[in-house]
Amino acid sequence: MRIDTPAGSILCDPWVNPAYFASWFPFPDNSQLDWETLGQVDYLYLSHLHRDHFDAKHLKRFVSKKARVLLPEYPTSELEDELRELGFTDFIKTVSEEVIELDGGLKVMIQALTSPTDGPIGDSSLWVEYDGVRLLNQNDARPTDLATFEALGHVHAHMLQFSGAIWYPMVYELPQAAKTAFGKQKRERQFDRTWRYIDDLKASHVFPIAGPPCFLDDELWKFNDIFGDEGNIFPDQSVFMKEYAKVGGNNGVVLLPGSVTEITATSIETTHPTDVDEFFANKAAHLEEMRERKRPIIEAEKASWRHPEIDVLKEMKRRIEPLLEESIYLAKGVGGPVRFDLVGYDGDSVESIVVDFPGKEVRRYADEKVRYRFRTERALVEHLLFIDEVDWVNSLFLSCRFSAARIGQYNEFVYAFFKCLSEERLQYAEGWYDEHQRTTDAEDITIGDWVVQRRCPHLKADLSRFGIIDGDTLQCQLHGWRFDLPSGRCLTGVGHQIRARRAGDPAPSTEGEKPEAAAPTA
């Protein structure tokens, strides 16, 4: 998205090239736009380091290095470091939730989210104001609420995510009926969260953006939402408009690559390169054409992954074992061995490697029971090791080029660890969990027949807004986490306990108790 004002232009998250082992492509295809012209901008904003937002190849080739970078306030310097390597030199280092005025009366504010589960160590939203017209590019950030932006005045254009951007439940080794059921639940939660954000801000106009990707490799083609599967988590903009209408939404605006919206405080006018309804009515044909046109790109990418010279076990030991030694909270949170089944070049042979969190070592699988297992091509892990990738979640896992199985609940600590395969990231994540595990949320609220802590134990969402109770179960609609209220036990993942009691029951006495640091449970 490019934002043009008389005081300057801002290019936001230009993503054109395939991401995540050539599995994700932008849809609709934007590669044929005039990027030589579009890249000549005054300001550049990258919301975070996900490779479907941070397209290094495109940034290097097409975006003016004279552009001033609006830099979110993140706990690590990775985003700035990578941009400097691409040739950018002029950075405006913003303070989260602090409005700054740029040249010509252009005002911006960036809200940075900094939990280990927000993007790759960070996600953000951009607020822009010029001459009384305000825009919020929320993108795929998930703040607990939008009150910070609402307080700055009525927003005229609200851009936000509505579609899936994850591998769940498609990659899990489950019966198809179960996958469909879980996918349907996730699809509904995605829309519910979107409606809540829209209702929070009450902007004049709503623009569905930040997804979905499309999958053009033959192996992944099934993930496109063109088969009438109610469990597909990648609904497109046309589906958004239909679902939005069901909840009374009538201010949605769909954009295609090349669409232009002129917006003022009192009016909006949008022009498109082609008819929007007709385009989505022919979605399958557009995808087929893209698949054939992009096939050489995918094949070239695949040819670059194999590195038979790499001893995978040796390199995983060298990279991961020092981090296991340093890890306290993440290692306890995982609580057991994680197994990688690496399928050889022949498609049949399998080498199984275990990351043993309690034992603090990486070793060959010894036929023991494991709670978490991933199966993928050996070549993919070879490539991760070859390029010294520090984030296997936002590379291997988002590619959907693997299958997964687990015993028991989802465990966020597994993915938090494999997102933090550098000392800088690991130390930040450990400190974040340490701080948040030690913080007691003292405020309680009443929802129905229950008194519960106000903040969700997962990522501190306000349960007075996102909490829904069904019988003795509470669900936080922000991320879909569920809790058994009588026991306080989390039903979605490990390591999160909620404080709850029935309304009318006396609050437990805390007199004489000493606060303790609560470690995540396995």
Automatic annotation (TrEMBL):
Keywords: 2Fe-2S, Iron, Iron-sulfur, Metal-binding
The keyword Transcription regulation is annotated on this UniProt entry: no
CDD domains: Rieske
Location of region: Disordered: 501-522
Name of the protein described by the UniProt record: Rieske 2Fe-2S iron-sulfur protein
Domain Rieske stretches: 451-493
Database matches in PROSITE patterns: RIESKE
Cross-referenced InterPro entries: RibonucZ/Hydroxyglut_hydro, Rieske_2Fe-2S, Rieske_2Fe-2S_sf, SCP2_Rv3818
Biological source species: Asanoa iriomotensis
